[in-house]
Design a protein that fits this description.
binds arginine; alpha/beta
Amino acid sequence: MKKFLALVLAALMVFAFVACNGTGKDNNGASNASDTSDTSDTSDTTEKATLIMATNAAFPPYEYKEGESFAGIDVEIAGKIAEKLGMTLEIKDVEFGSIIGGVQTGKFDIGMAGMTVTDERLKSVNFSDSYATGIQVVIVKADSEIKSLDDLKGDGSMKFGVQQDTTGDIYASDTIENGGYGKDNVVRYKTGADAVQALKTGKVDAVIIDNEPAKSFVKANEGLSILDGDWVKENYAIAIAKENTELLEKVNGALKELIADGTVKAIIDKYIPAE
Ligand code: ARG
């Protein structure tokens, strides 16, 4: 856990640095309003009518599918941001691990997926200001022998399920000396929901995942519980290509307004009712 704290603190420091440098201009995209219909003959290729958001929609309450459409905190906040920028939001549901690469190459404009700001990710993309926080927790079966964090061991006696490429995966797969459980003891699944399924069927003994999805999964599945613990806070933010500083400024401008006028809080409260 100490290692987790160090990692997250390091990430926060870099994040604060980037946030201070990347913002400050009041650029809310109002100039887009007149040219949505004739983007083809404008010379500025960064202007376009669609904002493509990559996400991994198996992470309630941040993003999930409701029939054919998408719902969740990120989906609604992104909708509001697009609205402010005079753009239409288009959502692509992809593997979590391919979001950053796709943002980097310009396949997606933004990556928004309850994504934690980390040092490693900051090497590849920029992050917007943070709009929410998360905490890594551990889900076990309610009748498990594992009763507390101290019972978790990387000695080969238990398997840890994670969603591949998430911070839960990164922490758990780290060496025991670094506070992890060793990558041989970690089973990586495509989605958090798959990891929870594996816990239910006894393929893994614990699942490490963000707290709000953990609560959603425990609520939706009988016989699971979340271990009490002294947890580390992570910051969620929107990934944007390093070259696309114009979009970063616009997104931060929109986010600032949406935070200031209470929209972000109202969306979060709608999906995460106070206990
Ligand atoms: N916060 C964690 C991370 O950034 C997990 C995010 C998983 N998100 C998702 N939509 N599946 O690694």
